[in-house]
Amino acid sequence: MLILGIDTSCDDTGVGVVELTDAGQVRVRANRVWSQAIHATYGGVMPELASREHVERIDAVLEDALNEAGVRVADLGAVAATNGPGLMGALLVGLSYGKGLAQGLSVPFYAAHHLEGHIYAAASEADLRAPYLALVVSGGHTHLFDVPREGAYVLVGATRDDAAGEAFDKVARLCGLGYPGGPAISAAAERGNPDAVPLKEPLQGQSGFEFSFSGLKTAALLATQRGVNPEDLAASFERTVVRSLVKTTVRAAEHHGRRTVVVSGGVAANRALRAAFAATGLNVVFPGKGLNTDNGAMIALAGAAAIRAGRAPSDLSAGATAYAPLANA
Ligand SMILES: Nc1ncnc2c1ncn2[C@@H]1O[C@H](COP(=O)(O)OP(=O)(O)OP(=O)(O)O)[C@@H](O)[C@H]1O
Ligand SMILES: [Mg+2]
């Protein structure tokens, strides 16, 4: 069965196609993302402009995805689209489009949670089956979930303030490295000395599983005011964030008795983070290339998981939700 996935939750118009075999194996056949450049001039996402651009682009992105997969729209067996969380206007574009497509084709429709999509992006790399622990580390989230069984999400810990990706973006701006900050910091860090700028690891000694990155941001600001080398600051900052993410996740995995850990979301593309997780000895699964940041294939993978688990299709009358916690257990 071919499943179409659509994500228009923020400023990326994403459409993907995933194949689900009778044996329950999944394969990404296409993943096309139109990243909106229009927001760069404003230094942040302008919601109404994002919605308009989704409307203008979605037909073309769908066509590209179908071409990449080598299929026609009539070959689709199900459609999945993100219904939250995200920017309301932006969400509604992809959600309405997906519902219309499903109804027109007389195939089932699955509404998908954006974070569930980020987690299932890892299903492109491994046969992902609960139980496992999932760290979603993106531009808007740093959330640790225990997944004791398929579709059940227990919140284990989250950031008290900034998301890790947000901190990367802000520190990159302080260092004059541009946007998005994650890849820019990562590249600069390779040329810097991580010992040059001493930064305190957040929430050291805590017994819980929380994160905090706003203090690091302030420390980075003070360091730039002292005139430190931006590459040294990037290296120190990246190492401190990576250590915090890995240590807390490893402790949570031990606490919950999980051997498999999914690390997903935009920051999961970070090479230093991947290397540090690989060294933990846990079975760490990352999304495949192009599946870390927002995309449609991850939503198709979440749809495939729902179908595989025998979940009923979504009601076409269900709307979008701007604020939607994933925790349900
Ligand atoms: N190599 C990298 N290292 C660190 N951070 C990265 C890297 N690549 C991307 N990022 C960060 O990932 C974030 C974008 O990820 P993503 O698209 O998953 O987030 P989002 O969709 O904006 O947030 P959310 O899904 O929480 O609503 C940005 O903050 C970006 O700086
Ligand atoms: Mg996202």
Number of domains: 2
Principal-axis shape: globular
Helix proportion: 25-40%
The CATH topology assignment of the largest domain is: Nucleotidyltransferase, domain 5
Instruction: For the largest sheet, list the strands in their spatial order.
Output: 3-2-1-4-5
CATH class of the largest domain: Alpha Beta
Layout of helices and strands:
Blueprint: E1 2-7, E2 12-20, E3 26-35, H1 47-69, E4 76-84, H2 88-105, E5 109-113, H3 114-120, E6 132-137, E7 142-147, E8 154-158, H4 164-174, H5 181-189, H6 214-225, H7 230-256, E9 260-264, H8 271-278, E10 283-285, H9 297-308
Parallel strand pairs: 1-4, 4-5, 6-9, 9-10
Antiparallel strand pairs: 1-2, 2-3, 6-7, 7-8
Adenosine-5'-triphosphate is lined by residues 10, 114, 138-141, 165-166, 168-169, 180-183, 186, 265-267, 269-270, 293-294.
Highlighted features:
binds adenosine-5'-triphosphate, tRNA N6-adenosine threonylcarbamoyltransferase, binds magnesium ion, 5-stranded mixed β-sheet, hydrolase activity, transferase, alpha/beta, tRNA N(6)-L-threonylcarbamoyladenine synthase activity, 329 residues
